Amino acid sequence: MNNYETVFILTPVLSDKQTKEAVDKFKKSLKSSGAKITQEEAWGLKKLAYPIQKKSTGFYFLLEFQAEGDAINKFEVELKRDETVMRFLTMKMDKHHVEYAEKRRTKFNKPA
């Protein structure tokens, strides 16, 4: 199994309930393909660098997971078919990327 991370942007016109349902749907899709989700982060509503579909903001989400290569194709097709997804990017994580992600999580999740 390889490590992957996907960042996707959902349209800002969704309610909190609708965004949660969309994210849960994508997580369920990954799990049904045999993937193991290792980290998820909701980055919230952020301003886009340029307008997409005449919108200047979007809800950002990050999913880190372990999966086989064929699961990525199915997952990306589902992201492309969903009209609430404005953009997405999936990256295969090498050992340095995984190490950096773990350090970043521990750095920002320390208790105050």
Describe the structure.
There is one protein chain. The protein has 112 residues and is of the alpha+beta class. Helices cover 39% and strands 43% of the residues. The protein contains 3 helices and 4 strands, in the order βαββαβα. Strands 2-3-1-4 form a 4-stranded antiparallel β-sheet.
What fold name goes in the CATH topology slot?
Alpha-Beta Plaits
Helical percent range? 25-40%
Main β-sheet description = 4 strands, antiparallel
- What would the average pLDDT be, to the nearest integer? 89
Output the strand order for the largest sheet: 2-3-1-4
Number of domains: 1
Order of helices and strands: EHEEHEH
Radius of gyration: 14 Å
- Specify the CATH architecture: 2-Layer Sandwich
Strand content: 35-45%
**In CATH, what is the class?**
Alpha Beta
CATH superfamily: Ribosomal protein S6/Translation elongation factor EF1B
Low-pLDDT windows of residues? none
Task: Give the N-terminus to C-terminus distance in angstroms.
Answer: 35 Å
Number of strands: 4
